[in-house]
């Protein structure tokens, strides 16, 4: 049984004060115990957020990290620094990082390995652009992204990861992939994992969908066999919406 995850990606939103208020609003509501709840907040809020969520159901995630432990990497944050403030998850290879910050399949692979070394759960993002979807090459692209991301990673480590399928054309656009489109690629990702590892391993890895997930489409998405949760941008910034996503079964 794969436990569902609802993970919020706050992106570059919320000051510490705003973050405190959002976390307190979320914690003020009942959250389904059957779901793993994660918030991936800006670096500046991580330390404070860590204190606020300790002892609650909410788990903390970062939105990026460097693969090295320390050194001359101006502006970067290391996995050791994330460990120090009890961060448990880290988003790796979000399309915005690939698009604006030159993140490549190779750096994604290094970051996943490093996250696993430091006991952080990587949420590995893959997904195609609109152009790639329209030219029909998107399945090859997903296969290439997943294969390169997991290069050199053992199956014992692979099962500790989470993958998020996020079609770029559906992120922040209000254009959700239909549940059938999302399921098709999440199932494809599982079959790629089966090829890379084996059936048992592929059945253990959680595959999320991300791209304009909202309270009115979450149920349909979660009904799909290979969708184990959602990575949520916009709707994670509103306590009511986020809690409705967490409570999608109710
Ligand atoms: C995301 O940033 O990972 C995302 C899916 O954003 P949104 O939900 O706003 O489309």
TrEMBL record:
<dbReference type="InterPro" id="IPR013785">
    <property type="entry name" value="Aldolase_TIM"/>
</dbReference>
<feature type="active site" description="Proton acceptor">
    <location>
        <position position="166"/>
    </location>
</feature>
<feature type="active site" description="Electrophile">
    <location>
        <position position="94"/>
    </location>
</feature>
<protein>
    <recommendedName>
        <fullName>Triosephosphate isomerase</fullName>
        <ecNumber>5.3.1.1</ecNumber>
    </recommendedName>
</protein>
<dbReference type="GO" id="GO:0006096">
    <property type="term" value="P:glycolytic process"/>
</dbReference>
<keyword id="KW-0413">Isomerase</keyword>
<comment type="function">
    <text>Involved in the gluconeogenesis. Catalyzes stereospecifically the conversion of dihydroxyacetone phosphate (DHAP) to D-glyceraldehyde-3-phosphate (G3P).</text>
</comment>
<dbReference type="GO" id="GO:0005829">
    <property type="term" value="C:cytosol"/>
</dbReference>
<dbReference type="GO" id="GO:0019563">
    <property type="term" value="P:glycerol catabolic process"/>
</dbReference>
<feature type="binding site">
    <location>
        <position position="212"/>
    </location>
    <ligand>
        <name>substrate</name>
    </ligand>
</feature>
<dbReference type="InterPro" id="IPR000652">
    <property type="entry name" value="Triosephosphate_isomerase"/>
</dbReference>
<dbReference type="GO" id="GO:0006094">
    <property type="term" value="P:gluconeogenesis"/>
</dbReference>
<dbReference type="InterPro" id="IPR022896">
    <property type="entry name" value="TrioseP_Isoase_bac/euk"/>
</dbReference>
<comment type="subunit">
    <text>Homodimer.</text>
</comment>
<dbReference type="InterPro" id="IPR035990">
    <property type="entry name" value="TIM_sf"/>
</dbReference>
<keyword id="KW-0963">Cytoplasm</keyword>
<keyword id="KW-0324">Glycolysis</keyword>
<keyword id="KW-0312">Gluconeogenesis</keyword>
<dbReference type="InterPro" id="IPR020861">
    <property type="entry name" value="Triosephosphate_isomerase_AS"/>
</dbReference>
<comment type="pathway">
    <text>Carbohydrate biosynthesis; gluconeogenesis.</text>
</comment>
<feature type="binding site">
    <location>
        <position position="172"/>
    </location>
    <ligand>
        <name>substrate</name>
    </ligand>
</feature>
<feature type="binding site">
    <location>
        <begin position="9"/>
        <end position="11"/>
    </location>
    <ligand>
        <name>substrate</name>
    </ligand>
</feature>
<feature type="binding site">
    <location>
        <begin position="233"/>
        <end position="234"/>
    </location>
    <ligand>
        <name>substrate</name>
    </ligand>
</feature>
<comment type="similarity">
    <text>Belongs to the triosephosphate isomerase family.</text>
</comment>
<dbReference type="GO" id="GO:0004807">
    <property type="term" value="F:triose-phosphate isomerase activity"/>
</dbReference>
<dbReference type="GO" id="GO:0046166">
    <property type="term" value="P:glyceraldehyde-3-phosphate biosynthetic process"/>
</dbReference>
<dbReference type="Pfam" id="PF00121">
    <property type="entry name" value="TIM"/>
</dbReference>
<comment type="pathway">
    <text>Carbohydrate degradation; glycolysis; D-glyceraldehyde 3-phosphate from glycerone phosphate: step 1/1.</text>
</comment>
